Amino acid sequence: MEKREQLVVACEVERSFVRKLNVNAIAKSIYQAVIEQHELEVHTILLLKPGSIPKTSSGKIQRSACRAGFLSDSLDVVGHWHKNSQSKITEANTLNLQQQSGLNKTQGSQPKISHNEFHKAQAIQSWLVTKIAQKLQVNPQKIDIQAPFSRYGLDSVATISLSSELGDWLECRLSPTLVYDYPNIEALARYLVEELAIPTTVLNVNTLQQTKTQEKDAKVSDSAIAIISIGCRFPGAKDATAFWQLLRDGVDAISEVPADRWDINALYNSEPATPGKMSTRWGGFLDQIDQFDAHFFGIAPREAERIDPQQRLLLEVTWEALESAGQAPDKLAGSQTGVFIGISTSDYSRFQYADCDRIDAYAATGNAFSIAANRLSYLLDLRGPSLAVDTACSSSLVAVHLACQSLQNGECNLAIAGGVNLMLSPELTITFSQARMMASDGRCKTFDANADGYGEQRFGK
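^ thats the sequence. predicted structure below, dont judge the formating
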């Protein structure tokens, strides 16, 4: 059937039940018994005229003949159920049987539900989908409303809990075994709508408030995130391996301010808050931040000169991280890969904008925070979210947080997240010295009685 095998159940109806044939009840019992005993989903159920099912001379049922009769529509059917029918349970026209048994009226199909009931059923289905997804910790999209409850492996405790929570949501008392009485979400929702007087206002309020929250929770719980690589530059460590070695060996990477940054002798004063001076000579600094292979990234030398070293560093470290992860950068083109970058200092732009005659077209893109992330997306032709974050010291952490949220929400399927911070001029350190925030030895001593401020470090990750 439909180019794949499906289970069809064909059975005869005893003559004594012809006059009181209830196709709905019989089909539901058969469907539920097959699920419980064999864990198989029934596609179609046929109720046949007494004595009409194909048998051998010894009385054994001829399965092949039944299959052929079903496919050719030649079986003498008095009741029919199909899983894809709108009402789920439909009764076939029983004219032939009625004529034989003296009945003059035909049994019609199950009445269609009203427009209002349809929306109520949809609301209940949505609640059941999100609640089951939440219990199983899977994405709600994986829950099929026509699949039997047994498919989801809910134990007795879980099903009783589900019935109790459903009753609380609908503001009515339900049987603890209700889930066992109906084969799937769709059938249960229809029963509740048709048999219970559920106020529309209850569904409206609960659907808007609870279902959306449950969908979000279930979606988030189903979104495991793997960190597949890291690229970094830290003081004293040119890559992740060197950084681990530094941590393992307890290496102190703090050093005096390099001569190529600023004249520390001219700007240093040990007395905090001295006007125009900084109260520390120390910090964490990266080497060779002026070195950059513009040709490798397809950037013209003239443009490269205008690009903030923070952007250059991000390009290098991101490329290294992708290579380490086994992700060929050229294979990511057109993918839903997001970029989330924490960045908060703009020393390089102050150098350029100090001389208006030297400002050119590349100065804006070379120094804008947004381009720090967007340049990566442009270079690799990435189609996911691309944004820069400035929340001061927590910028990198917030960037990672936003990347996780984006992955969980399905906005991207791969995320590049991190941060960069290079201090190229003394102004900010002087500002912090005026606020007495700087440690005189350039070292953070968190939770230590000797703590006297923090030390600044420059990095890319």
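The longest strand covers residues 414-421.
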